[in-house]
Amino acid sequence: MESSKTSSEKENDNLQKLDGYKDVLLEIKNIIKSFEEKNASIDVKKESQLNVLRGKINSAIEDDRLLNCLDEIIKDRKNKDKLYVNALKHAYDKINKSNKNAEEKRKVFTKILTGLKLDEIGEPFTRNAQRVKVSFESQDSFRANMVRYTRKRQLGNYSPEWFLDKKSNGFAFIDELGVERPWASNKEYKLTEIPMKKGIVVKPTNGSGSNGVYLVIDLDNIRDVKRKKVLTSWDAFKESMKEDISSGKVKRDVWNVEELIFEDEDQTEPSRDLKFFCFYGQPALILEVCRYPETRYCWWDINGNNILTGKYEDRLFQGQGINDEMINLASFVSSEIPSAFLRIDFLKTPNGMKFGEFTLRPGLFEQFNKKTDRLLGTHYLDAEGRLVADLLSGKEFRAFSKIKSTLT
Predict the structure, then answer these.
(1) pLDDT per residue over 157-178, tens digit each?
(2) Does the structure show a pLDDT above 50 at 1?
């Protein structure tokens, strides 16, 4: 019996069992190795193909035949896409006509859906997928909605919220809501007219990113935000601004001046940014940005959890976080604007948040990973539905309508 075996005998039995698994373990190891080699081969092949295409494009540019070259590349891609789409549709047809039960069909249709683009999904698939309760969540995309939003603007004046993109208009609206913000000069300045004073932010009237943005902490401590430099004199500051204009980073010699908000009571550190991705009254994602001594980023979900989004992953840090008061303020401001989405940027102070600016179309939205893109896409669709429902119920958006009618 097993219980009568000595410890030595039991050890021998275990060794024999392990010997029996050696072949299996070796086979698994070989499979893994083969898989890794195959993936490496695929990666090399893809990179090789990409280099060939880049070479074609470079040659076409030199020979002034880029459009013809692009036609060929686009045609080739469409043919390859069509091949795989037809294969997926074949799988759908076979399973749809089979005697598989609803649960089995739901699993297959859900998998097929993840391999199709929105414009590749036909009516029969949509109808039959709905019958077996397939979720179309995999088609939700913030990126797609941002592109669609751009196209909607091209068609006409269907995006009234864009008047908030001008900072002075945004400030006027925020004042109407009674939300705190930095003071800002109503005057637009030329480089030679900027007041020589500390505790101000100087930025181009129509700028992008942090190009041409300067924080005048003191007259001998002026931070060039874009270049990550500290300028120690007013003359160096003006020379840097001239370089911004001559290089084209700043398009016009027209500048705004506003209050510099500090994060600490001693007024030594400029405030960090808190950027709320808001979907008609509901923040879904928050980006905390600390710009000194170098720009670093921290992403938060609505529950205050650190998350990864695919953006800035080489420059992340552990931020200070958010609280309910911050979320409620962002929610309130967003709910007073008839738009499915906009980003509301705040400045953090020792006494809470002050409004910074509105951003209607965040930059580099294509860098979000699939999970984040889908999450924000779902919020976008939900916000559109809630907004239409409120409009049909007679919501007036009084502060928004008052400021828009006054300023446009």
Answers:
(1) 778 898 898 888 999 999 999 9
(2) no
Q: In whole angstroms, what is the distance from residue 274 CA to residue 266 CA?
A: 21
Tell me which H or E stretch contains 214.
strand 214-218
Rounded to an integer, what distance in angstroms lies between the CA atom of residue 157 and that of residue 154? 8
Type of residue numbered 90: H
State the Cα–Cα distance between residues 333 and 44, nearest whole angstrom. Answer: 50
Angle at 232 between CA 226 and CA 233, to 5 degrees: 105
- Best CA proximity match to 380, nearest among 147, 53, 60: 147
Cα(252)–Cα(122) distance, rounded to whole angstroms?
Answer: 49
Q: 265 falls in which pLDDT band (50, 70, 90)?
A: confident
Distance of alpha carbon 309 from its chain centroid, rounded? 8
C-alpha 101/C-alpha 196 separation (Å) is: 76
Query: Residue 397: is its pLDDT beyond 90?
Result: yes
> According to CATH, where is 3.30.470.20 located in the chain?
160-178+269-407
Sign of CA dihedral 31, 33, 35, 37: negative
Q: Which fold has domain 160-178+269-407?
A: D-amino Acid Aminotransferase; Chain A, domain 1 (3.30.470)
Give residue 270's pLDDT.
85
Stated pTM of the model: 0.80
Q: Output the 3-class SS for 368-395.
A: CCHHHHHHHHHHHHHHHHHHHHHHHCCC
